[in-house]
Records
---
Amino acid sequence: MTEYIQVSPDDRAEARSHVIKLHGPEGFAGMRRAGALAASILDALALRIVPGMTTQQIDDIVRCMTIDAGAVPATLGYRGYTKSCCTSINHVVCHGIPGDKVLKDGDIVNVDVTPLLDGWHGDTSRMYLVGDVSIKARKLIDVTYECLMLGLEQAKPGNHLGDISHAIQTHAEKHRYGIVRDFCGHGLGRLFHDSPEVVHAGRPGTGPELRPGMFFTVEPMINIGRADCKLLDDGWTAVTRDRSLSAQFEHSIGITETGHEIFTSSPGGFDKPPYA
Ligand code: MF3
Ligand code: CO
Ligand code: CO
């Protein structure tokens, strides 16, 4: 049975396995601000990601914008991670580490940012097109975005997490894409990663019931080929085993009395590419 706990304003950031936190108005206010900052950072990248730049240059932009806003990149120093965002190119599923890698014409790249602002985490990612991108890659990106938004349509009180998972799975499988099972969405708030786990494939009506005040991410990773991933020797970078292209979008949301609030919507309308 799922346990829920009503969070009060002075609660400490504590992980309680299997207990799902229900946040109040101050939580919503904090997440709104952190989420808006995260989304504005991704907006700034929309017109700046071009062939020839390195993923380190993306990381520099993210770090500077985060710190200028009075926030801290939550990934800096997280379990030994030393960068301010993740940059996952082509067959990289997630957690690509920024570095010397140069973006080339035709690449697709996911940038995932998580500013920690006044104690609250805004976690979001989007895909970017580098120069001229193939139709098959653009279709994967479109369908992955649709998967996220169809999943979010199910995010309302009385529904279950499995309803979100099922909507994502159904749409991805309609296109014969693989849904990554090795990574999932997560509760968040004062903690970066909290319960519940939000899986991206599942059966309707299963999993915890959604209640007002729940905060979590939905972040489907969808592959053109098979779902299977492997981890590279750096201990972070996850790639598709068959080297097929992978795409991901992520929003942080809060369940409201009537549905959900997306904390990380793009202020500039740059929700999905093309952004130009
Ligand atoms: N932002 C990622 C997520 O969606 C987590 C990245 S952790 C890192 O949960 F250490 F790899 F950056
Ligand atoms: Co996340
Ligand atoms: Co993220």
---
Amino acid sequence: MIGDKKILYSGMQATGNLTLGNYLGALNNWIKLSEEYECFYGVMDLHSLTVRQNPAEFRKRARMLYTLYIAAGLDPKKNCIYFQSHVSAHAEMAWLLNCFTYMGELSRMTQFKDKSAKHADNINAGLFTYPVLMAADILLYQADVVPVGIDQLQHLEITRDIAERFNNIYGDVFTIPEGYVGKTGAKIMSLQDPTKKMSKSDENINASIYLLDDPDTIIRKFKRAVTDSGSEICYREDKPGICNLIDIYSATSGKNRDEITREFDGKGYGEFKLAVGESVVDILKPLQARMKELQADKAYIDSIIKENAEKASYTSMKTLRKVQKKLGLTERIR
Ligand code: TYM
């Protein structure tokens, strides 16, 4: 708790351009929950290094992600929004927690298996211990709740296991965090292959809606979205493409599945795809406009980067010092 509020922690990797999946699965929930909790949101730039980055592009993209959090509606005066690499406690805590994590449990992580298959020429140790750094992120802030999409739940589970293991030995050091998955939008699928999740790193740009795509591009991508050969708009297992579009429309319009199937009863795929596209354009419009304004105000963004990094350092350092002491590391002489 900070004051009378519970603590919320979340973040995104600064890899690739943010997609509608990131928005509906995570960012949108962050905004909904931000008044109720004391919130910390990281731009996870250290995690991004598990894949080779072009330094100049990476720097630009990380800053863009930072700005996007604010453009989407997070108030940087009320929420602590910061770069993971600006707070050294993350890397330090990750080392300590590495010593409480087993090779066996890390080998079972599906994201590690997927990413190793995708980057077979660069299966580095960082990719393997990636969930430990994520556990460090969350546990440093004593988070009660972690809003994520479904794909991150396994990492949250290992975070809880590590925290419980540590607490069993050293007492109640860490708060055990709960995952928060939204009712809609928790797993948005690719528009070109609805059996795969929509991903920032998809090579096919038509598979993902990027948050800064212009309206024409968004509508075009929805028109091209892969569906099935039928014509009925209903939520059925054999219609993964239509299910995905219904989920997107539900998350953007607030209507539930039944309302949507009724609304499009007897109408064709073309009309439905257009409605989904327009509803996505509508929710992204204010974010895109705010993004332009914020990008023009470098001094403002710089000032909040600095202020929030200090706040995150202060909060995280309290937990790090406590953990170091519990472990028996020699205290600093002041
Ligand atoms: P990342 O950067 O892959 O994704 C950021 C958030 O977006 C969600 N998400 C999706 N939700 C619905 N449908 C999709 N297609 C979709 N794709 C992504 C993810 O579930 C996530 O919530 N390891 C994390 C970043 C991280 C983190 C943390 C998150 C590092 N430390 C601490 C929470 C707490 C990741 O790679 O997310």
---
Amino acid sequence: MVETKLLKYNSNDVAAAGEILRGGGIVGIPTETVYGLAANAFDGATVAKIFKAKGRPQDNPLIVHVCDMAQVEQVVSFIPEAAFALAERFWPGPLSIIMPKSSRIPDEVSCGLDTVAVRMPSHKAALDIIRAAGVPLAAPSANLSGSPSPTTAQHVIDDMSGKADAILDGGSCDVGVESTVVSLVGDKPRLLRPGGISVEQLESVLGEIEIDSAVLAELSPGQKAASPGMKYKHYSPKCRVIIVKGSFDNFRRFVKNKKKSAALCFDGEGEKLGIPFIEIGREHDSSAQAHLLFEALRELDAMGVSTAYARCPDTDGVGLAVINRLLRAAAFTVIDVDGAAIIGLTGPTGSGKSTVAKYLTEKYGAAHIDCDLIAREIMQKNSPVLFQLAEVFGEDIIKPDGELDRGLLASRAFATKEGTKRLNSITHPIITSKALAKVKDFTLEGKTAVLLDAAAIFESKIDKLCAFTVVVTAPEETRLDRIMFRDSISREKALQRMNAQLSNAEYEAKADVVIHNYAPFDLGAETHKIIDRLKEIKP
Ligand code: TXA
Ligand code: MG
């Protein structure tokens, strides 16, 4: 623990910040994008302290901040023509340019790459502090790794108190999202991270540029990131974020009855929703949204909700940076409320949820997605998931014929809470994204409702993606008889299976609609409850 000095933006405190930086300290500084955690860029040992304070992965290089072109010459070995053009137009400002690094830049800054990202910030305090320090400053965003970037001094205090030597308060950051990162070291200029300067603005100087695939899509397992920072989970509040595409009316109907949830929505929408909300600027006003996004993500945690449903922003101009950050906060989970309604279908073993699924698909033309089947598919022979699981739970979970030994995996994974969590953290995101891809396909086929059928729908939190959830139940004695008959197993074995799941009461308490699948209830009348509910969602 160090004692963190709180500094103001005045000449005395700027001089003090400069002195701390020259003396090998790390300082939280304001910039026009987000606050940075700065150190002398030529001093590897001090830069290492930044990684420690943030808990930052060792392979994620830092941006070097300069106050003039003379400093640029100190940090790069060569300034490409295009860099002069970009600097002329956008510096000082929210643009980082990747160039070949000079020998003065230590490995701690570049993480072993032979390039360095350079940026001249426009915030007056940032420029004054760099001048006072007399050296270029390496500075990542001043948040704990994985958390939303800080846009006020208070955010930096929350994350870096006791870690940074000082924090200088320069007010709230204008832009609110980080700088645009563009690389000039390849054949063609390439956008690695969208930010305060838009693609349209870059192209007005450079002509057409390449957009790295990691900007809008998730890297597939093993794919190398051009910008190491893009591969990490980022900007995440503790609650789960889900991006919701579609009209406001459909959004409103979708979130209306959601428990323990909040909405991230546009100005003027919140009051109409009936759930807690944070407004992040007017619809179509990307600059306002950029300015408010990170603050909103931080606020979500203070609200104590478990899920946040975010309206989908525009993706042009600075909007590309907003959606890029939001996608990462949401771990790329996007649902479309204008598409087929997702109905979560579950129920304990023996309750007959397949009967209900069959009834709904045959009578009402609903599509059906079996998540348990997807789970099997993703763990097939030679699949990346299978290898990932073997790394965690032991090579011997793969049998000599290359297939998964389900029993062995289950005995290892479910032995501890930690193991179960590891297993789920590997499989659930992939199951979710595969299921959502199928929903998209069914929407294109013109389906209006999709049954998302999963035994562990609540445990896996797949229920959060659903318009509503349906639980099929039957008395335990009835279920016992059905299982024994269906699978020709003993009473003990059947009981064992039943006891491994939530109880009837637990299922029913979590469901939006309960279907009684046993006499004297009439299955037709029972399933009609689902159709009625669907009409509320899709009138
Ligand atoms: O607006 C900003 O850029 C803020 C303020 C403080 O200036 N800084 C910032 O730094 O966002 P950070 O460390 O949070 O993000 C830097 C990003 C990371 O995604 C990193 O991988 C990438 O820039 N980066 C840095 N040097 C790179 C290099 N040589 N090649 C490729 N990517 C690089
Ligand atoms: Mg960052």
---
Amino acid sequence: MPGLDPIRLKPLLGPLAGRFDVDVLAECDSTNSEIQRRAEAGAPAGTVVVAERQTAGRGRRGRTWLAEPGDGLTFSLLWRFGGPPAWLSGLSLAVGVGVARALEDCGAAGVALKWPNDVLLRRGEGFAKLAGILVELVVDRRGIQAVIGIGLNLRPPAGDLPQPAAGLVEALPALPDRHGLLAALLAAQAEVLDRFAGQGFAGLQADWQARHAWQDRPVEVLQEGAAGIAGRCLGADRDGSLLLATAGGMRRILAGDVSLRPA
Ligand code: ATP
Ligand code: BTN
């Protein structure tokens, strides 16, 4: 599998090329960790690190992200925002809208979003996880920087996973060249992140809702050490929180260490 070449990527980014500085590594621990180190050393917004292989790729709560070299795209992007950190609670949803749009622009059908950080692919009556998003914040005296990590499966990973995994290969007649795909993903991120910076998640809420996998379906919200909350899933509110219609009334769940499952 030939590696990604930043020089081939540049013309594909067109006028956006100046907003990104893309580095491709054969291997690193986690592109999110690598970007965090670079942010602490003063890297500017728009810094992107792509890794062909991650030795410690991770999801939320330290869960492992599996990806064989060539079977996916694993990269992280550094972005800067003003305002208090709480305002960024809808950021992983906004990033999901960008990933979905980019995949749709490449011709993929059946891409859907799961609150708060998953991109799913419709498979029969259900869905399987196509991409995961891990947003982490670096707060320093210059303000808040967001480390936006995206793991996209071109082919589903081998191995046992608690939930089904999908690959982009299932959604397209042929897999696109990874350079074109990465350029589409970065271009879509520039667009949604600009919108998010101006309007917050409210400016992307309708785009998110239009792709919401479990709209009006019964779900359960699970939190370690607490009883689950069952309800009908109404999707994301203007600030990115999850709205759940429960027997006891409307509940608003903030993105945190909670898991959402179909009931
Ligand atoms: P939860 O709602 O419980 O947080 P999640 O699917 O969103 O579930 P995350 O912690 O956000 O969980 O994501 C990590 C999960 O993704 C892990 O449970 C892991 O099993 C799964 N996973 C790891 N690698 C892949 C992959 N390449 N494709 C799909 N899923 C993967
Ligand atoms: C999740 O589903 O919980 C998020 C998974 C995020 C995986 C990506 S792969 C690139 C970046 N580097 C990491 O270590 N994680 C993210």
